[in-house]
Amino acid sequence: MRLPRSGAADDGLNPQLRRIERSVEERLQRLSEDGELSGLPGEGMPFAPDQLAGDDERWAAFRIMKDNGILPAWATLRHEIDAEHALLRRRATAHERWLTSRAGLLRTLPADRIMDTARVTAREDARVRAELRAEVRRLNELVVRHNAIVPAERLVLPAFSPDRLVPDAARAPDP
Hints:
The protein has helices spanning 15-33, 57-67, 73-108, 111-149. By secondary structure, it is mainly α. The protein is elongated. It starts with 14 loop residues before the first helix and ends in a 26-residue tail after the last helix.
């Protein structure tokens, strides 16, 4: 069995690299003939396609980044945006649950405490909503930075809406 060559011509390789390549190919050939390469995981299957395959500098840069676990700035920023958005969603969901429990509390309170409790609930709701809006503004600043550096239009993120974090239906009743 003859192993296929890498397809790269010897042109441009210095003599030392050609000797190394020949040595590696001869070693692989001997291992193959001795059956040392049989039964390995993935045997007979094609290599996974490399989207950046080629000999240009871009491919080399991306290969080095991939091999060393380095992400481009826009990808790192995307991870940060996703983490911040998940945190905001959890906080908004917790606030929505709190509002629902407060609405239930208001239905069970004696008449003399309903107005004060409703005011406290409305004040706390307004405070949390203002904080959420400020966090969404900061998150949207990250989105703008991300969108300015992404390499493809399909990677552009839409801005987040503070009004969609906590539905208005869950708002506390006005006093």
